[in-house]
From TrEMBL:
GO terms for molecular function: glutamate-1-semialdehyde 2,1-aminomutase activity; pyridoxal phosphate binding; transaminase activity. The gene is hemL. This is Glutamate-1-semialdehyde 2,1-aminomutase. It catalyses: (S)-4-amino-5-oxopentanoate = 5-aminolevulinate. The keyword Acyltransferase does not apply. It comes from Mucilaginibacter terrenus. Its EC number is 5.4.3.8. The modification N6-(pyridoxal phosphate)lysine is found at residue 272.
Length: 436
């Protein structure tokens, strides 16, 4: 059934104004809706699994602020803890007991790190982890994988995913060549390329950084064997393995991908979920590695708002909910059922579409390949189908992130009714996408 486009009058007015203030009218590129239909939606409020835009349109949200909102929008426990703490002041630039509280919740439930440092974003966490690895190993080169996005740190904006792949230019201008030259880039899931990189740059690679669940260039699920092989080669070569768990941390399980695959990296970076929707990131490692950080070690890293009490309060409340028995089992089972119903429908209709999933993450790939493990296996043309689906879904009150290279998230707030409504909207949308 065809439906009309929703009204975007107020969003369009706001967007016109925003364009006079911000480049492209936004403060982060993918928000500009440039690879999907229509002007960006300006959001007015969120509650549970639902969002409302400036025109009063209501949506069931599968973007979840790009991952942090694993409990849904405006969760009462998070909101109340934030408000309680805010009443005592918002920033001191001095230690507070709240930092200990959040660290204790994380470290006593995570077998893979012994100490951590809070920062204010995923980018900052990764930037600091890289510096730590370089300071620790006294080497300069970093190895990353094509399609993995690690925030907008200079040396990692090389063949990256997220907004870069969305806009078709996978490396950024403004990165000096000597910086980029310190970054070695290879394809994911390619043991030979990995081996060769370690041979070519023998004794020079400080760290390998990987999203163990690559989720910024579609969902490029790796095999456990490959990740084990990577671990092995890093150990053999005296190279630190960094798991960038800004998306997968506290998402595919409390211990993230390290726990999911039972592989111990040397450094882990976190963001998104750890802050309960406020700006928090963290990096952690063994006490021995972390003690290379200032003021005890010689690797400098600091932050005026690091460990900010309001942000810690949000993190404490959210992380406490995640530690409730059965939290992940329930969330992951709900996602698996949702994906399985969509797959059955797609198979029945014979659509060229695969839905990839892990934990409560899913990705729609307009392809008939049953496995996609590398960025170059995605046909950019397939994004036209995503664009068409995105428009149909928005018009049916379903909000997916505005890029076909980004994944969707299910939260604890999604009800069975939400998911039934969403499936119907997806089935109706796909009928239109595949009939054109
Ligand atoms: N690493 C990964 C794996 C990410 O997905 C992101 C953000 N999507 C970042 C780092 C950067 O985090 P932030 O946007 O908070 O700086």
């Amino acid at each position: 059934m065809q439906v009309n486009d929703i009204s975007r009058t107020k969003s369009a007015e706001l967007y016109e104004k925003a364009k006079t203030y911000f480049p492209g009218g936004v403060n982060s590129p993918v928000r500009a809706f440039r690879s999907v239909y229509g002007t960006p939606l300006f959001i007015e409020k969120g509650d549970g699994s639902h969002l409302w835009d400036a025109d009063g349109n209501e949506f069931i949200d599968f973007c979840g602020s790009w991952g942090p909102l694993i409990l849904g929008h405006n969760h009462a426990a998070v909101r109340e803890n934030v408000m309680r703490v805010m009443q005592k002041g918002m920033s001191f630039g001095a230690p507070t007991a709240l930092e200990n509280e959040l660290a204790e919740l994380i470290l006593s439930n995570n077998r893979f790190i012994e100490k951590l440092r809070f920062v204010s974003s995923g980018t900052e966490a990764v930037m600091s982890a890289i510096r730590l690895a370089r300071g620790y190993t006294k080497r300069d080169k970093i190895l990353k994988f094509e399609g993995c996005y690690h925030g907008h740190t200079d040396s990692l904006l090389v063949k990256a995913g997220s907004g870069l792949v969305t806009f078709g230019e996978t490396s950024s201008a403004g990165v000096p060549k000597p910086f980029a030259d310190e970054t070695v880039v290879i394809a994911l899931n390619d043991e030979e390329a990995l081996q060769k990189a370690f041979e070519d740059f023998s004794g020079q690679i400080a760290a390998v950084i990987i999203e163990p669940v690559p989720a910024n260039n579609g969902l490029l699920l790796q095999t456990k064997d490959y990740l084990n092989y990577l671990r092995e080669l890093c150990t053999l070569n005296g190279t630190l393995l960094i798991f960038d768990e800004v998306i997968s941390g506290f998402r595919v399980g409390f211990e993230g991908a390290a726990g999911y695959y039972d592989i111990k990296p040397d450094i882990i970076t976190y963001g998104k979920i750890i802050g309960g929707g406020l700006p928090v990131g963290a990096y952690g490692a063994s006490a021995e590695i972390m003690d290379h950080i200032s003021p005890v070690g010689s690797v400098y890293q600091a932050g005026t708002l690091s460990g900010n009490p309001v942000a810690m309060a949000a993190g404490i409340a959210q992380i406490s909910e995640l530690l409730q028995p059965g939290f992940y089992d329930k969330l992951n089972a709900k996602t698996a059922d949702f994906v399985s119903d969509i797959r059955s429908h797609v198979a029945e209709k014979g659509y060229e579409l695969e839905v990839f999933t892990i934990g409560s993450i899913f990705w729609f790939a307009f392809t008939n390949q049953v496995s996609i493990t590398r960025a170059d296996q995605i046909d950019p043309e397939s994004m036209l189908k995503f664009k068409a689906m995105h428009r149909e879904l928005i018009n049916r009150g379903i909000y997916f992130g505005p890029s076909g290279y980004e994944v969707g998230f299910i939260s604890a707030a999604h009800t069975q009714e939400d998911l039934e409504r969403t499936k119907t909207a997806i089935f109706d949308s796909l009928e239109i996408v595949f009939s054109n």
